[in-house]
């Protein structure tokens, strides 16, 4: 469970606990665990994807999805004008067969990241249609399909209109 405050609720039944994010962290959006149970990983408003490394270390930077992002300009910032530069990762999901992390970035499309944290591929269109504002993401582990939402296909960025698109991995 994620909300706008700088923490992630961590559930180990029957009790809940919170995983504290840095005070400069804004807007955790999605959470995912890798195939080894590592994480959670979460995308935040300043363009980073963070990975939880345990209670002694906390969250660390895992990957950034914008080729234009710099720490000085983006870390801890949340202005809409900066999201086009810094990126805004929303949906996260791992394909367990390869360990690759797929990220929907509102401004930079679908991003494939290797388990090492190295960006392998940026996909900005599908069948000749450019993505407008990618949001949620899920992966069918059996069929190898990525399902995601392009909520900007008809409306301006930030408005809620959903258009489901899928593409094979």
From TrEMBL:
InterPro entries: 6-blade_b-propeller_TolB-like. SUPFAM superfamilies: Calcium-dependent phosphotriesterase (SSF63829). This is Uncharacterized protein. It comes from Capsicum annuum.
């Amino acid at each position: 469970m994620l909300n706008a405050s700088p923490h992630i609720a961590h559930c180990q039944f029957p009790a809940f606990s919170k995983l504290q994010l840095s005070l400069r962290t804004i807007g955790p959006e999605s959470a995912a665990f890798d195939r080894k149970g590592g994480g959670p990983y979460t995308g935040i408003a300043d363009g980073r994807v963070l990975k939880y490394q345990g209670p002694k270390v906390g969250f660390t930077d895992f990957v950034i999805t914008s080729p234009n992002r710099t720490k000085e300009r983006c870390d801890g910032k949340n202005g809409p004008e900066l999201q086009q530069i810094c990126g805004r990762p929303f949906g996260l999901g791992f394909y367990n067969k390869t360990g690759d992390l797929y990220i929907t970035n509102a401004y930079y499309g679908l991003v494939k990241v290797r388990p090492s944290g190295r960006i392998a591929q940026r996909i900005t269109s599908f069948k000749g249609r450019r993505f407008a504002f990618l949001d949620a993401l899920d992966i069918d582990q059996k069929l190898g399909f990525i399902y995601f939402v392009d909520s900007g296909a008809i409306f301006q960025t930030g408005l809620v209109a959903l258009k489901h698109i899928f593409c094979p991995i």
